[in-house]
Amino acid sequence: MFQNWIKQKERHRSTSKVSFALIFSVLSLTLGFAAVKAPLKSGVQYTVITDLPETMILDKTYTMQVDCENIGTMPYEVWAEITITGPEGFNNRDIFIVWTTYDRNLNLLGHFTLGRDGMQEFTGEDTITWTGKRTLMMPGDYRIHMLDVTVYGSAPLGNYKVDVTVLGEGKPVEANVIITPKALNVKSKGQWITAKISLPEPYKEEKIDISSVKLWYKDTFVSAEWGTATEHSLIVKFPRTEVTKMLRSAEGNVQLIVTGLVDNTEFSGADTIIVLTP
Amino acid sequence: MKKMMRNKKILALAAVLLSAFVAIAFATTMIMWTWTKNINVVAPQSAVVYTVNQALPDGMYQDTQYEMIVTCENKAPIPYAVTAYLKVVGPSGFDNNDIFVHWVVYNITGGSVKIYDFTIGRGGTGMGAFTNHDEYWVDWTGTPDTMNPGVKYEHHVFVTIYGSGPTGTYTPYVEVTGTGM
Predict the structure, then answer these.
(1) Are both A129 and A247 inside the same structural domain?
(2) Are residues A135 and A107 in the same domain?
(3) pLDDT (tens digit per residue) in A184-206
(4) Which residues, other chains included, contact B7 with Cβ-Cβ below 8 Å and sequence gap of 6+?
(5) pLDDT confidence band for B8 (50 / 70 / 90)
(6) Number of helices followed by number of strands (H, E) in chain B
């Protein structure tokens, strides 16, 4: 008679069908820093190792793993922006993310929480956003991001749209560059244009790959033909005829940029000379 | 001549400034990776889990008290507001005067503390009476109670069908609704 005495269930605000879309793209980078030419090789590659499911149950934790690697020669300062659009009433109290970052050897690099009672929080109502802190990824750096995502039972049911954007700025090693002669008469005779390159610690000038050193004017460059390291600098020489040819349209104050690789990491520095066309 | 030289210098300076501006414009933030996903968020089967430890018998005598024991635990990571709803469908003529429920709740999280003790039905106190419907079924809705994560309750529900109640088949129904807070 009383066999159906307990039949409990929990009601929630709404249900809806699933729709799924995944856009995954890695954009190769060709331009980065002011006064920096195209890096020799660039790109921070992101790979989703473990994806979030198309359907998530409230109060259950799902893990997403995204690996990224700076496969180029340019150091990059990167940061993430997350935007989540949910049903009406969705806000920071409805979500909790534990974000842990490791290196390729699974050494812990960072850990923080985001959302309700988290160390950081989303802002907004219905559509919530968060912007992460900037971190520097050096060439060869590999990071494993583990995100434990929980949508709390306080959240409205239905369709959510999650957008993650990683932004970046190229940050080459800033070199101090002195180019001589300071006044270049394009008609005068001479064999070399010289650049003295100094790097900040911990980089060593003797580790500069001389064959990678280039002198840039706008989008054209001349490669270094000779170089020698001194105690705190590297002297490189560029063939004067090629440089004057590169500067044939230039006159007056001209900014020249020197780029190259040190320990497989891009450096860049600029100096201004006066181009004379008598 | 001097004026021409000055104009040339101004033009050269303008060119340098323009090239610097272009370079700075290229330094603006780049999108390195984007990821978009649509996710359907659904309700859990149960955030607060209920277990019947002792059920009512299939056959009950009038004027005899029977005990039912139910435990529940909030296994969700956030508090839930839970509300009980009771409905009993009986033979024709059954109403609130024919039933008496004595409900005692203990918080058994790390001990045993009585937190609720009330009665429903004929002579019920505190939580009052069942509502009569169409002379053969009654229902009652409790007040919301907040259960924090990890909290366990033990419900002792003592049920008596009075001698005034019609004999026959009764169908009780219990529903607990929960809202994450």
Answers:
(1) no
(2) yes
(3) 988 877 899 999 999 999 999 99
(4) none
(5) low
(6) 1, 11
What does the block give as tokens for B57? 């018998």
List the B152-161 sheet strands across, edge first: B48-54, B65-74, B152-161, B99-107, B113-121
Which residue type occupies A195? A
- Is A203 in the B-facing interface, judged by CB distances under 8 Å? no
Q: Tell me: the pLDDT tens digits for B49-108? A: 999 999 999 999 999 999 999 999 999 999 999 999 999 999 999 999 999 999 999 999
**C-alpha B8: how far from its chain's center?**
77
Cut 0.95: pTM above it: no
Asked if residue A78 is part of any domain, the answer here is: yes
The amino acid present at A54, given as its one-letter code, is E
CA distance A5 to chain B (A): 5
C-alpha B94/C-alpha B75 separation (Å) is 38
Candidates B13, B36, B176; nearest CB to A22:
B36
- A10, A19, A152: residue with CB nearest B38: A19
Asked if residue A232 and residue A213 are part of one domain, the reply reads: yes
Q: How many domains would you assign to chain A?
A: 2
What gap in Å lies between CA A67 and CA A79, rounded to an integer?
14
Q: Of A173, A4, A139, A60, which is closest to residue B43 (Cα–Cα)?
A: A60
Instruction: Give the C-alpha distances (Å, rounded to integers) separating A121 from A43, B14, B121.
Output: 29, 46, 49
Residues spanned by the domain of A206: 173-276
CB B89 within 8 Å of CB B99: no
Are residue A57 and residue A165 in the same domain, yes or no?
yes
Torsion on CA atoms A67, A72, A74, A76, rounded to nearest 10: -10
A21 belongs to a structural domain: no
Q: What angle do CA A29, A35, A38 make, to 5 degrees?
A: 30
A106, part of any domain: yes
Distances (CA, A) of A225 to A176, A191, A204, A238, B73: 20, 11, 20, 6, 76
- A57 has a chain B CB within 8 A of its CB: yes
The SS3 of residue A93 is helix
- Kindly state whether A14 is in contact with chain B, defined as any CB-CB distance less than 8 angstroms: no
Chain B interface, best mutation among A3, A7, A12, by max B CB count within 10 A: A12
ipTM: 0.71
Q: Which two tokens stand for residue B71?
A: 């435990």
Burial A150-170 (b: 16+ CB within 10 A, else e): bbbbbbbbbebebbbbbbbbb
Among A170, A186, A205, which residue terminates a domain? Answer: A170
Domains and CATH numbers, chain B: 48-180 (2.60.120)
Average pLDDT over residues A100-108: 96
Where among A141, A170, A199 does a domain terminate? A170
